[in-house]
Amino acid sequence: MKKQLLAFTLAFIMMTGFTSCKKDWTCQCTDQSGNQTSSAINNETLLNATSTCKDKDVNYTVAGVTVSESCKLQ
User: Fold this and answer.
1) What is the pTM of this model?
2) pLDDT for the residue numbered 39
3) pLDDT computed for residue 4 by the predictor
4) Strands 58-62 and 36-44: what pairing?
5) Residue (of 50, 65, 59) closest to 30 by Cα position
């Protein structure tokens, strides 16, 4: 019983630690031509950094020209 409680406690601490760790991230964006740009996302959790990076995705059409840029966290 003590071993199970210890294992559960360690697993909980590890999960909590990994999900709330703030650090610097890089958001890598690629357009339809293959050109790449990157931007820094500083002092954020993985969840917030992923959301911020996905918000940089661009898809629109102007005068028949489609512009598309997809971004992913590095």
Assistant:
1) 0.66
2) 96
3) 74
4) unpaired
5) 59
Question: Which segments of 24-71 does DSSP mark as H helices, in order?
Answer: 46-54
pLDDT at 41: 97
Tokens of 60: 């629109």
* Sign of CA pseudo-dihedral 40, 41, 45, 48: negative
What is the distance between the alpha carbons of residues 56 and 35, in angstroms, rounded to a whole number? 15
Alpha-carbon torsion angle 56, 59, 60, 61, nearest 10: 140
Q: Which two tokens stand for residue 59?
A: 């898809």
What per-residue string of b and e applies to 38-61 under the rule 16 or more CB within 10 Å gives b?
A: eeebeebeeeebbebbeebeeeee
In this prediction, the residues of the chain whose per-residue pLDDT falls under 70 are 1-2, 5-8, 10-20
d(CA 65, CA 57): 17
User: Structural domain boundaries of the chain?
Assistant: 22-73
